[in-house]
Design a protein that fits this description.
Layout: H1 13-19, E1 23-26, E2 29-31, E3 38-43, E4 46-54, H2 96-118, E5 155-156, E6 175-176, H3 178-187, E7 192-198, H4 211-223, H5 228-231, E8 234-237, E9 242-244, H6 246-259, E10 264-270, H7 274-288, H8 297-306
Parallel strand pairs: 8-10
Antiparallel strand pairs: 1-2, 2-3, 3-4, 5-6, 7-10, 8-9
């Protein structure tokens, strides 16, 4: 039996950068605090040292010409860069021994979480981003180095007096602003296409995945593979990054790994790259009143400087 160490548990790029005394300056870039120059970047889940330091600021790299996504019945084709999700899944390539290890780890996390809940305690913390599955980009390979608390969210507790405060509350006292986000995209002429892609071909944007939360969803999917609260479409960028719904994506992909059956996940593809969507979505969440605590005015201002063509006048 392959042990868990075979899944290559290692430091995330952010943790490695912190260990080296580097400062995160956005989009998976890390700078030397003394000079302010970017000296390392996050690539495929690893911290890579740059051969030549760079000044922080928007990337001037030209985007490659975008091939069109295959047209599906009743849908218009959308453009996407070359690094968009593939049409085929890598799930069948994962050895049975590794799938078994993933399954056992999820079972363990689910059990620990259940026991903690029965005792009235907080579930143990385990970041699934620390696990790399050979041959795939799971779980957080090639992420953008953004902490979970600085990611946009469309569902949350509304700020008093905000537009979101006028929406109906669910049982948890939260509101869902996703319809408002879709209206904002339509208003600014940003195309959104409904389609399906192999879940394992999508990429995490954030650097953290709460293991116990993912494990709980996986166990729920084992009982009912069509739970609307988990399998509902999530927003992704045209270059294949998850915008909102990381834990649902991770649960569906984990379930696919343990069963060995690829999962075509329903997605709403925003016709923008992730580098532009995140600041736009964070500004939206802040304006309507559901932004996370990590999205401060200073952080948002820095992110908007990276480039967001539709942020003005929202």
């Amino acid at each position: 039996m392959i042990g868990l160490k075979k899944l290559i548990i290692e430091l995330t790029p952010g943790e490695e950068a912190k260990k080296r005394g580097l400062k995160h300056v956005g989009w998976g870039r890390y700078a030397d605090p003394a000079s302010g120059d970017v000296v390392a970047v996050s690539e495929k889940g690893r911290l890579v040292r740059l051969k030549k330091p760079q000044k922080p600021g928007p990337s001037k790299k030209k985007e490659p010409k975008s091939p069109e996504l295959k047209k599906e019945p009743g849908q218009e084709p959308i453009s996407r860069p070359k690094d968009s999700p593939k049409d085929s899944s890598d799930i069948p390539k994962i050895p049975q021994a590794i799938r078994s290890v993933v399954s056992m780890q999820i079972d363990k996390l689910a059990k620990l979480s259940r026991q903690a809940k029965e005792k009235g305690e907080k579930a143990p913390t385990f970041n699934l981003c620390k696990i790399t599955i050979p041959g795939t980009n799971l779980y957080c390979g090639d992420n953008k180095g953004i902490p979970r608390e600085q990611m946009p969210q469309f569902k949350g507790k509304p700020r008093e007096g905000s537009p979101a405060d006028k929406l109906p509350l669910d049982r948890s006292g939260e509101v869902d602003t996703e319809p408002m986000f879709r209206q904002m995209l339509d208003k600014h002429g940003v195309k959104v296409t409904n389609t399906r892609v192999p879940s394992d071909q999508l990429k995490a944007t954030q650097t953290e995945l709460v293991g116990s939360k993912v494990a709980g969803m996986v166990k729920a999917l084992e009982q009912d593979p069509n739970i609307p609260g988990i399998t509902a479409p999530i927003y992704v960028s045209r270059d294949g990054y998850v915008i909102d719904g990381h834990h649902r994506w991770a649960a569906i992909t984990t379930n696919a790994i343990t069963t060995g059956e690829p999962a075509d996940m329903p997605v709403r593809v925003i016709d923008m790259d992730v580098k532009d969507i995140i600041p736009m979505a964070n500004k939206f969440a802040q304006d309507v009143g559901v932004a996370t605590k990590g999205v401060t005015e200073a952080y948002l201002e820095k992110m908007l400087q990276v480039g967001c063509p539709t942020c003005g006048g929202m």
